[in-house]
Amino acid sequence: MTKKIRVLVVDDSAVVRQTLEEILNSDPGIEVIATASDPFIAAEKLKKEVPDVITLDVEMPRMDGITFLHKIMSQHPIPVVMCSSLTEIGAETTLKALEYGAVDIITKPRLGTKNFLKESSIRICDAVKAAAQARIKPIPAGPIRLVAKKLSADVILPPVKSRAMLQTTEKVVVVGASTGGTEALREFLEALPLDSPGIVIVQHMPEKFTTAFANRLNGICRIAIKEAENNDTVIPGHALIAPGNRHTLLKRSGARYFVEIKDGPLVSRHRPSVDVLFRSATRYAGKNAVGVIMTGMGDDGAKGMLELKEAGAYTIAQDEASCIVFGMPNEAIKLGAVDKILPLDRIAFEVLSACRR
Question: Active site residue: 178, 196, 268, 273, which one?
Answer without folding.
Answer: 178
